[in-house]
């Protein structure tokens, strides 16, 4: 396609840099500085998509991020392979560059001929909410028949099929003043705020260059020079200031608490030459001292029959295409307006060579100087006229207009032939971010708009986003806002540039007067979601009066443009029907994001290996080299077992568990949570947090500690050593470490701030190597200095400090297997070396490395519980048979009061027992349910469930633990346990299955 | 009430839809009602509906401080399932599930209940045990729930990645085929229309400010922003604001309120056939009839009444979504929002009497009460009509926090929705 509608000169495009884009397989030509929208229009292509519900032909409505209709699928890097395509891109913000492949959406078989357009014929049925009223019969048909059809018809573009091939980055920034929007107000604000060179200022704008509305403007003068000269000067002033960062292509999309503003910057989508690996987008999380919102305003479409035909555009957008992109959207342009600003469009389009006439809803008397200016330029102005309808289908071909008589009656109709309509229903300040900041909006009758009222955060609005439209006033307002953001009291100081006057003022119209049957015609309010004025009337008729109800019932304002062009028209319409003042209908709350933001930008680098980065122990490398199979445990990866050639998990676990009982095993316990509790009140703190007694624990002693939540249920457990009078080394479960620390801090900071205690996580500081088994002492002995390992000098459940392999260590004599055991704690950096030394020496004694699976089996064999496996937050110490660990004498501890509640001590609670299947080879499912009698009808009463279950080679059979009602009193009874296919029989036993031979843990 | 049907729709289509009537009236409050329901969310409206239809109690008002359905009912991700672990919960949610299955016809309002299946993914050993425990318990309670292998999960939900390279590989899943989603607004509106047709007054923009009591302490009515309204019985169904309302009545509730967030993507053609929940990584996802991916996040860490949560919660959820479904990385977030959810110590709801005679409460649904809407309304209507709990809601008494007879589903599975 060539560029028949490109103007011979002008525009902010670089004619020396031609480029092309593939559009539905055709070649589209343009220049650097173009968007896909401006290229389409230059080629004369208005038809750019099909609508959501009725599949009506749609064109380009706007030149900015408020575009509701021209949504395209874009493959950004087709030349680099798959993974770069995404749907629903607004043509008006896709910057043109070579090798873009764009396609229109939501049609079949083609854009020109779309079968889905039958929906348009069926539209009398498909009104707002029609689906709530039908598709209910027969009962099962909804999700099997109707819903799939509706789903296929809806949904705009196609989701990407393959993994996103781009990467994204993330940046946190702080500044004194964040200015959002680099139009005249924002530029002025940034100039003023940064003037003293002290305040750090960030100026962000979604556009590719600063200037905002002035980019469309070739007539306004500032200080006697073209407005864009002032923009260029301002930008170079700001550029030269070291305290200013200017971020083009950066959209502030979310305004959160504490002046936390999130922005997304387009980094490489616009660059054909972007090096591979350069981030596509960057998420900026800005914490700003003060914020200036200078986000401008959105133009309102006019609501009349067929106002959605391709070629019908917003007036300011027509002006933008003419001036900024040197494209004439039509040769025969009718400007339909109730707003003075559109006259400038008429003037500029005429200057560019189009034939132009104006249809103005306003009477001559209600117009300003724009009227005479247009007349002087030789433009026909039809004042006091309404638009009845647009003609044409895939492109507007005419506009039927008529005068409105003084009594309101529609006069004689007349058809104006045209190929483009520039419409304007006035302006709506963009208060999205202000509203997100939780500021209170105020309705301004004069402006017919909601404007920022009371701020909720350190923020202020300037310029058009608060309803100031005249250029000179906008600049003055921006300067004042910038100054006030720096805390300057004299907000009027400094010189204000002189600007030429703009055409401002408009007459609010909701739906244009017509003599057609309003209940039949389609006059669109929300273009993307295909919501018409009659849909809104229907909603109100059916009692949906709050604007939120109207939105939800009709879906107006719920599309990807979030109602930027439709919200005010919808609100005004509802208020009009109900004859209530507009604010009484409610304002809509704006929810982030301002414009849609890619998931990629939001997740940033947090993917692949950086998604929840894996925590590895100091011994992980050794385990990997030695063939470990790993499993994820909380954020860690832990060696599950160490298979030898040809071994499966069961074989490996059988070998590992046997080795521990018969010789010695070595186990990496470094993931255990470790917290140091230090301070004069440490013992008192421990006494309150744990159920058992701590005050009398001797220095050098260890104790198994049990911790409850306030509700009396078991929360965590672990061995605790007293290193000094005022110092405890606490261990927790691997998964429980963070929450135990939080739990402790919570009590320390909120309940017992009087206690002088410090808590420090030391999980990462110590590598923990467990040596378990009859030969554990032998393996350890040669390496230890400063500690006597004999039973007498170093009994079970004690701790000593000394050296292992010359490395300082905290040596625990503890066991989680029932065998003689030591846990060697050495600084993490030495973990691997010490492990290797022990392992090598252990070779003489048959040492075997074992993983978490064997660890679980071993502890189950001797009946030790694992919190999180035997417990689930509904289990008391007594349920576990651990009531001996609950102090009867302590005045208080966390959970004590709850333990006294009647149901916590009632008969029939589930108690921890063992289960032995009748068939010793059968390993029941963990999580299986236990019943008395499997022949009872459903719902069947359950008396318990299986918490752990293993094949135990040391026991020569399967073993299981279960929580069963009154279990401890039912030892020997037979119960029935669910299996995938039915039930199996098992006998209740004690929850300990193996008798340790030789020197036990606590010989 | 004019019935909705294809016939009436076609009739109206030919006459420009001029003949539809209001779906509910906008009455002025009467001086007194037999029952006042505080809170016009799904649960409150369902309560009123069943009071009228099941118990013949029609002198009922629903008082809503804003617009009906504007609370969590209109903000949730609409996951419906009944595969709960404990008998008490299974009874309650399955009661609701049965009502869901006929709800559109019952209300003559298409609530778009879509039984597309809810698949809960297991990512670690703990999940596997927990979900198997659910599957077995559900089987014995007569509730459908199946254990699927990773390959079966993939077959049921083709977009799912079951690569062993995942940070938390999918080890299997529990599937409830009868689970699914529904159209939240339609649930509120359908109940409102049905209740209104039977005489219930739905009064919007009416905030309850205090309780009026007889000299003997029993309930006499409520103070509202639209004046005092008498009532024999009052049922508070105010979700995240229950603590506030009951506080005004002089009662402290065992609930904490926190923001819970959700988001939708831009709409796309059908890509996601079912509902997937992954509790281990905090991600819940389905696709709406409009084509948006509907994604639920976790709760904020801090108690708050601000319906705006922190963006880090959203980011983290999307991290997880893109890990499980890498092809969604280029989708865009269209809208995100938060609701205030009321969480009890055992994460199960409270449905029953209060220490004040004539005052009843239905709250504590936390992050997962939408699915219970019909069942909750049904049994709470019974409670309000008879003054005593239905056997299904009897275990969910306020008293259980005193006796210790908790129903701790969250402890058992840490499932949010
Ligand atoms: C983001 C999010 C996602 C969720 N996802 C799911 C899900 O997937 N599945 C699921 O089952 N559940 C989910 N939930 C939970 C579910 O939304 C709620 O449990 C359920 O909707 C509660 O319904 P309700 O009618 O009790 O509350 P609401 O709908 O909140 O109704 C309470 C009403 O009380 C009104 N009110 C409050 N104070 C007063 C007063 N003083 N006077 C008068 N009126 C008052 C409020 O305005 C409100 O309308 C989610 C919740 C959120 C926030």
Automatic annotation (TrEMBL), chain A:
Domain (Aminomethyltransferase C-terminal) spans 910-994
Which keywords does this chain's UniProt record carry?
A: Oxidoreductase
Identify the SUPFAM superfamilies for this entry.
Answer: Aminomethyltransferase beta-barrel domain (SSF101790), FAD/NAD(P)-binding domain (SSF51905), Folate-binding domain (SSF103025)
Provide the transmembrane region boundaries. Answer: none
Matching entries from InterPro entries are given as: 2Fe-2S-bd_N, BFD-like_2Fe2S-bd_dom_sf, FAD/NAD-bd_sf, FAD/NAD-binding_dom, GcvT/YgfZ/DmdA, GcvT/YgfZ_C, GcvT_C, GCVT_N
Q: Domain GCVT N-terminal, which positions?
A: 622-889
Q: Which residues form the SoxA A3 domain?
A: 522-602
Positions of the FAD/NAD(P)-binding domain: 176-438
Which superkingdom? Bacteria
The keyword Oxidoreductase is assigned to this record: yes
Could you say which protein family the record assigns here? Belongs to the GcvT family.
What is the protein named? Sarcosine oxidase subunit alpha family protein
Per the UniProt entry, what species is this protein from, by scientific name? Answer: Jiella mangrovi
From TrEMBL, chain B:
Domain of life assignment: Bacteria
Main site of residence?
cytoplasm
* UniProtKB keywords: Cytoplasm, FAD, Flavoprotein, FMN, Nucleotide-binding, Oxidoreductase
Which InterPro entries has this protein been placed in?
A: FAD-dep_OxRdtase (IPR006076), FAD/NAD-bd_sf (IPR036188), Rhodanese-like_dom (IPR001763), SoxB (IPR006278)
Domain Rhodanese, chain residue ranges per copy: 35-79
Quote the Gene3D superfamilies the UniProt record gives.
D-Amino Acid Oxidase, subunit A, domain 2 (3.30.9.10), FAD/NAD(P)-binding domain (3.50.50.60)
| Enzyme class per UniProt | oxidoreductase
Where does the record say this protein resides? Answer: Cytoplasm
Q: What name is this protein filed under?
A: Sarcosine oxidase subunit beta
- The organism named in the record is Jiella mangrovi
């Amino acid at each position: 396609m060539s560029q028949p509608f490109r103007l011979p000169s002008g525009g902010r495009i670089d004619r020396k840099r031609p480029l092309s884009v593939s559009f539905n397989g055709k070649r589209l030509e343009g220049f650097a500085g173009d968007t896909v929208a401006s290229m389409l229009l230059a080629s004369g292509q208005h038809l750019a998509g099909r609508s959501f519900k009725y599949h009506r032909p749609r064109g380009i409505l706007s030149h900015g991020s408020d575009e509701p209709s021209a949504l395209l699928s874009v493959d950004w890097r087709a030349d680099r392979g798959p993974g770069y395509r995404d749907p629903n891109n607004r043509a008006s913000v896709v910057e043109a560059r070579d090798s873009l492949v764009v396609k229109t959406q939501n049609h079949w078989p083609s854009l020109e001929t779309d079968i889905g357009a039958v929906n348009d014929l069926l539209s009398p049925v498909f009104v707002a909410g029609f689906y709530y009223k039908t598709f209910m019969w027969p009962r099962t048909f909804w999700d099997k028949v109707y819903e799939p059809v509706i789903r296929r018809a809806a949904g705009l573009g196609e989701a990407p099929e393959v993994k996103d091939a781009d990467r994204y980055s993330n940046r946190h920034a702080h500044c004194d003043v964040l200015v959002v929007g680099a139009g005249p107000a924002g530029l002025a604000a940034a100039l003023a705020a940064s003037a003293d060179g002290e305040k750090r200022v960030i100026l962000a704008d979604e556009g590719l260059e600063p200037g905002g509305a002035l980019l469309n403007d070739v007539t306004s003068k500032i200080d006697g020079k073209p407005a864009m000269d002032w923009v260029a000067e301002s930008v170079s002033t700001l550029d030269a200031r070291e305290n200013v960062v200017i971020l083009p292509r950066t959209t502030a999309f979310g305004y959160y608490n504490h002046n936390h503003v999130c922005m997304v910057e387009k980094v490489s989508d616009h660059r054909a030459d972007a090096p591979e690996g350069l981030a596509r987008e960057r998420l900026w999380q800005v914490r700003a001292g003060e914020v200036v919102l200078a986000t401008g305003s959105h133009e309102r479409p006019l609501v009349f029959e067929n106002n959605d035909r391709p070629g019908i555009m917003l007036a300011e957008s027509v002006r933008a295409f003419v001036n900024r992109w040197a494209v004439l959207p039509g040769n025969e342009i009718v400007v339909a307006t109730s707003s003075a600003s559109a006259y400038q469009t008429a003037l500029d389009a005429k200057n560019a060579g189009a034939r132009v006439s104006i249809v103005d809803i306003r009477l001559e008397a209600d117009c300003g100087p724009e009227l005479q200016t247009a007349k002087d330029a030789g433009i026909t102005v039809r004042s006091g006229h309404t638009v009845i309808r647009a003609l044409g289908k895939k492109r507007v071909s005419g506009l039927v207009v008529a005068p409105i008589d003084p009594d309101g009656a529609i006069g004689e109709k007349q058809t104006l032939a045209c190929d483009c309509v520039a419409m304007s229903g006035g302006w709506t300040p963009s208060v999205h971010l202000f509203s997100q900041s939780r500021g209170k909006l105020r309705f301004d009758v004069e402006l017919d708009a909601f404007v920022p009222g009371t701020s909720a955060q350190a923020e202020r609005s300037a310029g058009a986003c608060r309803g100031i439209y005249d250029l000179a006033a906008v600049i003055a307002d921006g300067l004042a806002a910038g100054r006030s953001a720096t805390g300057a009291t004299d907000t009027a100081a400094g010189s204000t540039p002189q600007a030429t006057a703009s055409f401002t003022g408009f007459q609010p119209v909701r739906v244009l007067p017509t003599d057609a049957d309003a209940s039949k015609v389609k006059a669109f309010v929300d273009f993307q979601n295909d919501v018409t004025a009659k849909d809104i009337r229907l909603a109100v008729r059916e009692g949906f009066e709050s604007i939120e109800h109207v939105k939800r019932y009709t879906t107006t304002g719920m599309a990807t443009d979030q109602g930027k062009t439709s919200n005010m028209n919808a609100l005004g319409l509802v208020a009009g029907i109900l004859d209530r003042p507009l604010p009484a209908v409610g304002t809509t709350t704006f929810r982030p994001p301002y414009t849609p933001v890619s998931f990629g930008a939001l997740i940033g680098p947090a993917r692949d290996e950086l998604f929840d980065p894996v925590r590895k122990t100091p011994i992980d490398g050794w385990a990997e080299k030695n063939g470990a199979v790993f499993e994820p445990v909380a954020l860690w990866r832990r060696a599950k077992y160490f298979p030898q050639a040809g071994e499966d998990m069961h074989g490996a676990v059988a070998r590992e568990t046997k080795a521990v009982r018969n010789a010695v095993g070595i186990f990496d316990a470094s993931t255990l949570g470790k917290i140091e509790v230090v301070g004069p009140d440490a013992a008192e703190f421990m006494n309150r947090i744990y159920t058992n007694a701590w005050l009398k624990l001797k220095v050098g002693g260890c104790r198994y500690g049990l911790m409850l939540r306030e509700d009396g249920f078991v929360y965590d457990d672990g061995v605790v050593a007293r290193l000094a009078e005022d110092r405890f080394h606490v261990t927790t479960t691997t998964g429980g470490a963070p929450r135990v620390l939080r739990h402790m801090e919570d009590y320390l900071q909120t309940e017992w701030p009087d206690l002088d205690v410090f808590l420090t996580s030391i999980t990462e500081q110590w590598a923990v190597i467990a040596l378990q088994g009859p030969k554990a002492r032998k393996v350890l002995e040669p390496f230890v200095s400063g500690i006597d390992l004999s039973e007498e000098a170093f009994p079970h459940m004690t701790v000593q400090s000394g050296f292992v392999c010359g490395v300082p260590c905290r040596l625990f004599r503890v066991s989680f297997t029932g065998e003689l055991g030591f846990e060697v704690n050495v600084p993490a950096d030495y973990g691997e070396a010490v492990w290797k030394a022990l392992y090598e020496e252990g070779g003489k004694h048959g040492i075997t490395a074992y993983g978490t699976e064997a660890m679980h089996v071993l502890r189950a064999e001797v009946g030790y519980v694992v919190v999180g496996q035997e417990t689930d937050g509904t289990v008391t110490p007594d349920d576990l048979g651990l009531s001996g660990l609950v102090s009867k004498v302590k005045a208080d501890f966390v959970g004590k009061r709850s333990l006294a509640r009647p149901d916590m001590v009632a008969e029939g609670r589930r108690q921890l027992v063992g289960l032995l299947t009748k068939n010793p080879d059968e390993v029941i499912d963990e999580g299986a349910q236990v019943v008395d009698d499997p022949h009872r009808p459903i719902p069947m009463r359950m008396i318990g469930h299986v918490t752990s279950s293993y094949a135990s080679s040391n026991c020569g059979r399967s073993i299981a633990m279960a929580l069963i009602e009154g279990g401890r009193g039912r030892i020997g009874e037979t119960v029935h346990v669910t299996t995938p296919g039915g039930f199996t029989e098992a006998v209740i036993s004690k929850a300990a299955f193996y008798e340790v031979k030789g020197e036990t843990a606590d010989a | 009430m004019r019935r909705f049907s294809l016939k009436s729709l076609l009739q109206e289509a030919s006459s420009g839809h001029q003949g539809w009537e209001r779906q509910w009236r906008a009455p002025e409050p009467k001086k007194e009602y037999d029952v006042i329901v505080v809170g016009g969310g799904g649960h409150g409206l369902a309560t009123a509906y069943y009071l009228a239809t099941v118990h013949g109690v029609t002198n009922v008002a629903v008082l809503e401080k804003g617009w009906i359905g504007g609370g969590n009912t209109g903000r949730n991700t609409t996951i419906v399932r009944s595969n709960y672990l404990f008998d008490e919960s299974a009874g309650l949610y399955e009661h609701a599930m049965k009502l869901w299955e006929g709800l559109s016809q019952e209300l003559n309002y298409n609530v778009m209940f879509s039984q597309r299946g809810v698949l809960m993914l297991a990512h670690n050993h703990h999940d596997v045990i927990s979900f198997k425990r659910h599957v077995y318990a559900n089987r014995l309670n007569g509730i459908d729930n199946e254990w699927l292998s990773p390959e079966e999960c993939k077959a049921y939900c083709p977009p799912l990645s079951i690569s062993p390279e995942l940070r938390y590989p999918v080890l299997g899943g529990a599937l409830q085929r009868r689970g699914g989603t529904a159209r939240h607004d339609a649930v509120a509106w359908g109940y409102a229309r049905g209740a209104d047709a039977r005489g219930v007054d739905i009064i919007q923009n009416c905030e309850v400010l205090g309780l009026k009591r007889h000299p003997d302490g029993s309930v006499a009515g409520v103070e509202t922003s639209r004046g005092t309204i008498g009532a024999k019985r009052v049922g508070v169904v105010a979700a995240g604001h229950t603590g506030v309302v009951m506080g005004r009545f002089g009662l402290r509730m065992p609930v904490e309120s926190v923001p819970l967030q959700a988001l939708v993507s831009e709409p796309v053609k059908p890509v996601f056939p079912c509902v997937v929940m992954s509790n281990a990584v905090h991600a819940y996802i389905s696709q709406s009839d409009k084509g948006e991916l509907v994604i639920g996040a976790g709760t904020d860490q801090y108690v708050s009444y601000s319906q705006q949560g922190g963006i880090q919660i959203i980011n983290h959820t999307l991290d997880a979504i893109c890990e499980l479904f890498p092809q969604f990385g280029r989708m865009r977030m269209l809208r995100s929002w938060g609701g205030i959810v009321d969480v009890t110590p055992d994460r199960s709801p409270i449905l029953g009497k209060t220490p004040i005679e004539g005052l009843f409460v239905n709250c504590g649904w936390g992050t997962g009460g939408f699915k219970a809407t019909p069942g909750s309304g049904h049994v709470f209507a019974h409670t309000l009509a008879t003054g005593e709990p239905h056997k299904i809601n009897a275990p969910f008494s306020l008293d259980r926090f005193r006796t210790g007879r908790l129903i701790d589903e969250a402890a058992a599975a840490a499932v949010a929705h």
